[in-house]
Amino acid sequence: MSDLFRLAADNLLSLAILCFVLGLLAALARSELTVPEAAAKAISLYLLFSIGFKGGASVAAHGADGALLAALAAGVVLSFVLPLLAFALLRFMTRLGRVDAAAVAAHYGSISIVTFVTATSVLVDRGITAEGYMVAVAAAMEAPAIVSALWLASRGGGGSRMDGDLWREILLNGSIVLLVGSFVIGMLTGAEGLDRIASFIVAPFQGVLCLFLLDMGLVAGRGLRGARGVLGAGALCFGVIMPPIGAATGLAAGLLLGLSPGGVALLMVLAASASYIAVPAAMRVALPDANPSVYLTLSLGVTFPFNLVVGIPLYVAVATALAAG
Amino acid sequence: MSDLFRLAADNLLSLAILCFVLGLLAALARSELTVPEAAAKAISLYLLFSIGFKGGASVAAHGADGALLAALAAGVVLSFVLPLLAFALLRFMTRLGRVDAAAVAAHYGSISIVTFVTATSVLVDRGITAEGYMVAVAAAMEAPAIVSALWLASRGGGGSRMDGDLWREILLNGSIVLLVGSFVIGMLTGAEGLDRIASFIVAPFQGVLCLFLLDMGLVAGRGLRGARGVLGAGALCFGVIMPPIGAATGLAAGLLLGLSPGGVALLMVLAASASYIAVPAAMRVALPDANPSVYLTLSLGVTFPFNLVVGIPLYVAVATALAAG
Amino acid sequence: MSDLFRLAADNLLSLAILCFVLGLLAALARSELTVPEAAAKAISLYLLFSIGFKGGASVAAHGADGALLAALAAGVVLSFVLPLLAFALLRFMTRLGRVDAAAVAAHYGSISIVTFVTATSVLVDRGITAEGYMVAVAAAMEAPAIVSALWLASRGGGGSRMDGDLWREILLNGSIVLLVGSFVIGMLTGAEGLDRIASFIVAPFQGVLCLFLLDMGLVAGRGLRGARGVLGAGALCFGVIMPPIGAATGLAAGLLLGLSPGGVALLMVLAASASYIAVPAAMRVALPDANPSVYLTLSLGVTFPFNLVVGIPLYVAVATALAAG
Amino acid sequence: MQTHQAKRVEIIIEAPMEGRLTAALEKAGVTGFTVLPVLGGSGRSGRWTRDGQVGRAGMVAVICLVRPERLDGLLDAAFAVVERHIGVVSITDCAVLRAERF
Amino acid sequence: MQTHQAKRVEIIIEAPMEGRLTAALEKAGVTGFTVLPVLGGSGRSGRWTRDGQVGRAGMVAVICLVRPERLDGLLDAAFAVVERHIGVVSITDCAVLRAERF
Amino acid sequence: MQTHQAKRVEIIIEAPMEGRLTAALEKAGVTGFTVLPVLGGSGRSGRWTRDGQVGRAGMVAVICLVRPERLDGLLDAAFAVVERHIGVVSITDCAVLRAERF
Ligand SMILES: Nc1ncnc2c1ncn2[C@@H]1O[C@H](COP(=O)(O)O)[C@@H](O)[C@H]1O
Ligand SMILES: Nc1ncnc2c1ncn2[C@@H]1O[C@H](COP(=O)(O)O)[C@@H](O)[C@H]1O
Ligand SMILES: Nc1ncnc2c1ncn2[C@@H]1O[C@H](COP(=O)(O)O)[C@@H](O)[C@H]1O
Ligand code: NA
Ligand code: NA
Ligand code: NA
């Protein structure tokens, strides 16, 4: 018996997917299993701190120089451009109005840090190394997409409210600050620093990630249950077509930058993933008329599971095939 | 000095008991030491996930076949039958009315997962192995007792409210879903899965359990302080007599099933322990006229400490003596 | 690049400081990065439990006898006396009224457990051992300062409200109970107990401390932002002058007691640090007319960072130089 | 600013009954409600606090703003659920902005 | 549905004073109250938020439903505690179900 | 005990708008407010719950006690912020102790 079952589980990704699916099923079956909000937030702080620190320590070990800046620039450009692509696709494939389409587009230009963290763990698991500074690229890609999307919305007179406070909130949102901050700390303290706290930020990391994916499944499942009928067939299609398209742009950029196969895979993941924390909050402030059910359901209920199950293995396979180290 | 003291502490159980006692004393002395609700819930999620996963991984390693099903069936039968026994005892020994007695009986037919987790750790500590699927038996024993108890209450016209929603709530309550879910994940991913997250779910396990027992002591102590006088001498007696009786039925069932000594000990612990999370919530819904102080105080303030201090070592000793491996 | 940066980070303290500074900057820049209250409380419970337990286990290993009692007595005396010193200084250096000055004085006679924990980690990091019972001294120093301060306030008719409830709250406040309780448990279970939970309370300790310092930075930063202008130049001066003065008294006491260099350093840290959890709550109850912004800002926004950055390395250096082992 | 008369109903009820209460409210045509957490309290069944609890222990406060004409339906629905359970119900006159929402 | 006049008193007070306030309420014959958590606020003593705090910092909201004739006793008791402390007290007319509970 | 007429305004609004709302209130001369956490709710935009969320999702309840003459300014300020956002506003007559605080 066990042999047959274990086929499904030859890698970390299967474990991560199973945890997500458990949460999803529990929520769809209306189990009252829940993770307290404070615990979910604490876990996400842990993941951000840990991934940022490890990225910084890796840069301290291997150096970064110009490549870091080039990758950052590429990330920013991708984040600015992807919403335009997403917006065009949405207007073509779905019946979403300008404002809703712009709001969704913002999510796809930005990134999902959990998808990124999972992909990082998968690479570690398979022994594929990646540039440590990709975590800085992740941080850099969070915000620009919002600007593009607000521009798209305002072209139709959507009346977005882009004030100084919003700028600050977007640029200094919790995950950017913690990622960048711990990245810098990791860079400053290097291998010695990492050694000191490795039994906290390295050893238990994958287990904590599994628990977090369980919570993501619960939240996604509750969202799907509440949003039945919100998404048409067109929007659903968009949710699974946009990620590979984004990944393709990430692939192109990664190859141009000459990143390692692991780095290319991560850039593909960043481009393919859709935000579900920072951008939704920004959209509520800046585009209050956009329907949150649409973008949250697409991002968390469709694209996130797609990337987890299909996307990550696909992107890693393509990256390792094309970006011969 | 230290030698004398250390006599008390030759094993994990002493450590666990000391943590519980610390919490108990702090609460009785009205210290404002408290564990935040979200932290207590997060710890219990961790314990459930960890124990379920390890059980599943152990089944994947050693196989389970028919023995698993037989043990599940035995657990379900015990959970159905024990409330009848408890109810009869309660009506005989105490002045509790039918509804209150039925509500208490439900708790004793069901199980306390923390008692189970502690017993598991004690077995690990002593190098005694047990069937991994006992965790599935624990999950299977959570709910049937509620059905028996509601039947007992309704015989007297107690007017229990057993609707479809309640069924779903009981069968899909958080701890059952998480236990079963992580058990299945552990079974599917086996030793490789366990390896990946062992430094999260195995290494810190006993320490986390100690902190949780501290919280249990705090909650039990506050409960006892608030419930002074709620329990008569008869009820108190019941709280320490019922566990060994339950354990005896568990012993019989375990020997019949041909479980290992560790497995027998765990089945005794399950039968002897009383629920204090799932069943109280179900009773509030289904038997609102039952007095929660009575069943909570008995379960958490009397039987839980009894099992921790006297029960577990007793059951393990009896099981290892009688169930010669 | 990395070489230059890494100069800053040759030890744990740098890492701790960097985490604190990250939080401070994030709060000052008004980032919405926050640690949930429940998570912060859970972390502080973890730190207290861990430090108490390790202290107790160390006493079990090395014995304590009369030295423990002498150190406790010294700690109590310091805690009683330091507020008088602080009060005199405050009345001389600042324009604070009697009640405010008394409230501030209470904080400086009492101790900051995070400063103590950080210093302990720094000693471990540098391979300097210290008496395990210093954690009991820390607990003993929490409360006496409050008594002195209330006496100082009442001399001016400040009308402090010292009732039985307040006594209980102060003596049984959460951190004292948890510190002393886990110290006793550590003493009772000794090295065997420590072994069992070392992968929970030892291995991840420094990483958890870093996250906690991040939160301290956030809280301190938000406090400073809200309290701009509350402290005059005199009060600011007091905040950096009082710690070394306190440390000097700790040094004298430590040398008198014949403590090891590590023990002397820790006693200096205790005397130099200012409470920011237990005493503020007691002051709100007993001296409601004292302005909380003043004492919180001084303790958390001035003295805590001073001790972290300047104090700890200074005290450790002085202690190791003078208290030749 | 244009305001409209409404009723504010505050129901403090055991957490395990929250789902049943809100389902009953929805059935009675109540279009909106807000659930607030409760830390602790005291009543005929004694003192309790949420700290350190694990299960769905404790209570929640459910607040409904309704047009006055909907009040009776709401109270009937709520009462049917609350009746045998631990909890209290209070009703206050209030004014609301944007009446079309209620 | 039969309702009864009552008063809803809401006291927002520093968390370290919660125990003293509820003790005083009980002494004044108040038979029930509910404590709600507070995230943050602003007043004469400035802005504050609960995030990341560790001690018994912050405030709580204590809600009491009482029969009108008990109001004065309650306010006297509450005021004696709140007087020198940070906090506010408000009183609203309300109606309650099941008057025998108050 | 001497009490004074006042208004209790309760604004339930999306958490990401909290800062903007309280800034607007302060600008309108509101000297105090209290923010309560919200666990979940239901309205025209459907059902939601806070559990397991990570971002600044969810809603908060902002309570302001003001002198009656300040009410209009407060409502105008609040409305300008709330207008296009998810949320509800209710106003209740109340009495407060220590009127000098409002
Ligand atoms: N008079 C009251 N005012 C406010 N809350 C109350 C009152 N009475 C009861 N409660 C709340 O309702 C809960 C249950 O009340 P009871 O059913 O009387 O035990 C209490 O724990 C309080 O949270
Ligand atoms: N006008 C008000 N409306 C609502 N809450 C208030 C008001 N004034 C003060 N508060 C609350 O009471 C706390 C202390 O107020 P104060 O004593 O004025 O600093 C504040 O932090 C608020 O939570
Ligand atoms: N009638 C109501 N009574 C109480 N709270 C409401 C009401 N309507 C809406 N809410 C709250 O406001 C939130 C947003 O409402 P809406 O904009 O209608 O979706 C809901 O999730 C509730 O928390
Ligand atoms: Na993207
Ligand atoms: Na049982
Ligand atoms: Na001190």
TrEMBL record, chains A, B, C:
<keyword id="KW-1133">Transmembrane helix</keyword>
<protein>
    <submittedName>
        <fullName>Sodium-dependent bicarbonate transport family permease</fullName>
    </submittedName>
</protein>
<dbReference type="InterPro" id="IPR010293">
    <property type="entry name" value="Sbt_1"/>
</dbReference>
<feature type="transmembrane region" description="Helical">
    <location>
        <begin position="102"/>
        <end position="124"/>
    </location>
</feature>
<feature type="transmembrane region" description="Helical">
    <location>
        <begin position="166"/>
        <end position="191"/>
    </location>
</feature>
<feature type="transmembrane region" description="Helical">
    <location>
        <begin position="67"/>
        <end position="90"/>
    </location>
</feature>
<feature type="transmembrane region" description="Helical">
    <location>
        <begin position="12"/>
        <end position="31"/>
    </location>
</feature>
<feature type="transmembrane region" description="Helical">
    <location>
        <begin position="295"/>
        <end position="324"/>
    </location>
</feature>
<feature type="transmembrane region" description="Helical">
    <location>
        <begin position="263"/>
        <end position="283"/>
    </location>
</feature>
<keyword id="KW-0812">Transmembrane</keyword>
<feature type="transmembrane region" description="Helical">
    <location>
        <begin position="230"/>
        <end position="257"/>
    </location>
</feature>
<keyword id="KW-0472">Membrane</keyword>
<dbReference type="Pfam" id="PF05982">
    <property type="entry name" value="Sbt_1"/>
</dbReference>
<feature type="transmembrane region" description="Helical">
    <location>
        <begin position="197"/>
        <end position="218"/>
    </location>
</feature>
<feature type="transmembrane region" description="Helical">
    <location>
        <begin position="43"/>
        <end position="61"/>
    </location>
</feature>
<feature type="transmembrane region" description="Helical">
    <location>
        <begin position="130"/>
        <end position="154"/>
    </location>
</feature>
Automatic annotation (TrEMBL), chains D, E, F:
<dbReference type="Pfam" id="PF00543">
    <property type="entry name" value="P-II"/>
</dbReference>
<dbReference type="InterPro" id="IPR002187">
    <property type="entry name" value="N-reg_PII"/>
</dbReference>
<dbReference type="GO" id="GO:0030234">
    <property type="term" value="F:enzyme regulator activity"/>
</dbReference>
<dbReference type="InterPro" id="IPR015867">
    <property type="entry name" value="N-reg_PII/ATP_PRibTrfase_C"/>
</dbReference>
<dbReference type="InterPro" id="IPR011322">
    <property type="entry name" value="N-reg_PII-like_a/b"/>
</dbReference>
<dbReference type="GO" id="GO:0006808">
    <property type="term" value="P:regulation of nitrogen utilization"/>
</dbReference>
<protein>
    <recommendedName>
        <fullName>Nitrogen regulatory protein P-II</fullName>
    </recommendedName>
</protein>
